[in-house]
Amino acid sequence: MSTSTLTAPKLSIGPIALDVPVVLAPMAGITNTAFRRLCREFGAGLYVSEMITSRALVERTPETMRLITHHPSETPRSIQLYGVDPATMATAARILVDEDHTDHIDMNFGCPVPKVTRKGGGAALPWKLDLFREIVESVVDAAGDIPVTVKMRKGIDTDHLTYLEAARAAEGAGVKAIALHARTAADFYSGHADWSAIATLKETITSIPVLGNGDIWSGEDALRMVDETGCDGVVVGRGCLGRPWLFGDLAAAFRVRSGELTADEAVGLRAAPSLGDVARTLRRHTELLAEFFGDEDRACRDIRKHVAWYLKGYPVGHEVRAGLSTVKTLEAMDEILATLDWSAPYPGADAEGPRGRAGSPKNPSLPDRWLESRSLADASVRADIAEAELHHSGG
């Protein structure tokens, strides 16, 4: 299985020109340096860090300072910042810029986790449009020449949509792109993303790129989203879990769309990994995790959550899957991988499609009386919202 370094239609986010209009979505515990490096080996794009909490960054907690460290091979460097206080977010942005930690800052306003929305953070925050605008303006100002983008959801639920007003505010504040996960907080990750909302956002925001997120499982899905919505690029999250080669597929698909390749020419660039290819990639991922953590045992523990995603659809028995899910050393992993039939071909549709936990629709948890006003005028609520700054991600 070969990787692709070929170019495709470009997407510009401020001064950053991307070879393909593809962005890796931040995912907690997933999009660390190891996974980002692995994805880069298969295709071009913008690879965003897992979410960094602004308060932890300002306090310089050791784990946070490690998470904002990029490998020398990573360029452009991208960090997603999360917070609920404009001053803290601005201070965090200045740290990232003044100490040369990043080339791009993304802001998370899409987290649907109840512990966050219950305090008014994440996907609940844009409902308070004044606070949202204040946070975005403070980060754009602090970032200076470093481009800032925003990732959000449609809103809290279908009766309390926020994305159009928030997008206009973000555009006015000077962000360089807006990404929309076309679900509400109430949807969590269930059902189908509402791509029509991406189309509406694209019609509304005309001066900067609009990126679509939600239900991108293949190159064909990405092209269909662009064709149906007019969006300028795609943000890929759960679709690449256990499938880092998806980024090579996306690059090939976009090159076909641009006319740089014919469909027949692209066939050789599309991934159809044998079980041996998967085994090598799983092993490579674990090696990169060991380098990232500086600890082989921790790397082996971390890779366990990826095993089912990598092996989805392949003829691998329960005993092998269980062994890989409890492996403690690379040597032990090698012994288990050696028992696989490396010649087993790509299983096609069985290895594709949705992955990760979708959850089910739910009534979002919100602060008392949160929906009564679009303005954060109550100081007690402002104090309460500070508790939303927890180590949760999503969007």
Describe the secondary structure blueprint for this structure:
Blueprint: E1 11-13, E2 16-18, E3 22-24, H1 33-40, E4 46-47, E5 52-53, H2 54-58, H3 62-67, E6 78-82, H4 86-98, E7 104-109, H5 114-117, H6 129-143, E8 148-153, E9 155-157, E10 160-161, H7 163-173, E11 177-181, H8 195-204, E12 210-213, H9 219-229, E13 233-236, H10 246-258, H11 263-267, H12 275-293, H13 296-311, H14 318-324, H15 330-337, H16 379-385
Parallel strand pairs: 3-4, 3-13, 5-6, 6-7, 7-8, 8-11, 11-12, 12-13
Antiparallel strand pairs: 1-2, 9-10
Helix pairs in contact: 1-12, 4-6, 6-7, 9-10, 12-13, 12-15
The proportion of residues in beta strands is 5-15%
**Mean residue pLDDT:** 91
- How many strands in all? 13
Question: What oligomerization state is this entry in?
Answer: single chain
Describe this structure in words.
Residues 24-334 form the DUS-like FMN-binding domain. InterPro entries: Aldolase_TIM, DUS-like_FMN-bd, DusB-like, tRNA-dHydroUridine_Synthase_C, tRNA_hU_synthase_CS. It comes from Herbiconiux daphne. The protein has 395 residues and is of the alpha/beta class. The protein folds into two domains: 11-269 and 358-388, Aldolase class I (TIM Barrel); 275-345. It has 16 helices and 13 strands. It has helices at 33-40, 54-58, 62-67, 86-98, 114-117, 129-143, 163-173, 195-204, 219-229, 246-258, 263-267, 275-293, 296-311, 318-324, 330-337, 379-385, and strands at residues 11-13, 16-18, 22-24, 46-47, 52-53, 78-82, 104-109, 148-153, 155-157, 160-161, 177-181, 210-213, 233-236. The strands form three sheets. The chain has a nine-stranded parallel sheet. A two-stranded antiparallel sheet has the order 1-2. Strands 9-10 form a two-stranded antiparallel sheet. A hairpin with a 2-residue loop joins strand 9 (155-157) and strand 10 (160-161). Helix 12 (275-293) runs antiparallel to helix 15. It is globular and about 65 Å long. The two termini are 31 Å apart. Mean pLDDT is 91; it is low at 1-8.
